[in-house]
Amino acid sequence: TDNSLRELGENEVLVKIHSAPINPSDTYNARGVYGKLGGSTDGHGIGFDGAGEVLKVGKGVDEGLVGKRVAVGQLPFTPGYEGSWRQYLITLKDNLMIYPDDADFDKICSSFVNPITVCTFLHHIEKNKYKAIIQTAASSSLGKMLHRLCLDKDVKIINIVRKDEQVKALEDLGSTHTLNSNSETFKEDLAKAIEELQPTALFDPVGGELSKTILMSMPTFSTLYIYGSLDTAGTFTYNNRELLSKRATLTTVFATDLVKFCTPEELQSYYELVSKDIYEGGKIFGTEVVSTHPLSDFEKAIAEREASASQGKIILKPWE
């Protein structure tokens, strides 16, 4: 253990990080455009997901955790955020998912950001009894998770992508309603799908005119859940008359919201849902690993992630 590390506080653990994926939010954070993140000991921690082994525990933590393989969720805007792109990480016990001793670090290191975001969507879907939804950026790792979860929960879903090959990929995953937003017939296809399924929730990480086009085509009393801004150059404007006529609701959603919405028991049930699925093969929450890179090559790894975003995860290895 690095002797330069500070002493552990109450409910803290020391984790030796073996794998840390690159999420889109990590790249924004690396460029300093994600927002204010508190708690970093080195000025600007990076990395919201990771996996490793517990080396030491602080007061109030069961000594039995030492040696356990864990996924770490260093979610933004949460207490003690330091970032998982490092060799050693001090974090709170509550930021861990515990896995069996033979769990693969590369496979479990993406247990928080995307899966818990999708679980947050599930919380809204079940609470509001949505029978059908729409999602944009459906070819992303998170989008595929939401698609598979909707199939599992018998929720109808319209997937929006940007390329014909992405339509085919989602159809191979069982999608019956996947639309290419760049198609000349997109608006007509969208209207037809909405008429058939009557979706009343839109989960959107894109923004821009696409978001507005979809929401204004949806039934009255629909809700737009904003969880990203991939269209960084795009803006959209609603006037009050448009929103009033649709009785539409605009809100934001974030992975850390689940902590606020749920009891500790409910939160643990979501963690168990995710960890059990990933360990058993990732039918819903699994993510393909495209490649691995030493942490020192993070700039090259980020460039590769941006070129292969819909294919799976790029993993950083702090000890290579």
From TrEMBL:
Cited Pfam families: ADH_N, ADH_zinc_N
Domain Enoyl reductase (ER): 1-316
The entry's keywords: NADP, Oxidoreductase
Segments passing through the bilayer: none
Matching InterPro entries: ADH-like_C, ADH-like_N, ER, GroES-like_sf, NAD(P)-bd_dom_sf
GO terms for MF: NADPH binding; oxidoreductase activity, acting on NAD(P)H
Gene3D superfamilies reported in the protein's UniProt record: Medium-chain alcohol dehydrogenases, catalytic domain (3.90.180.10), NAD(P)-binding Rossmann-like Domain (3.40.50.720)
SMART domains: PKS_ER
Protein name (database record): Enoyl reductase (ER) domain-containing protein
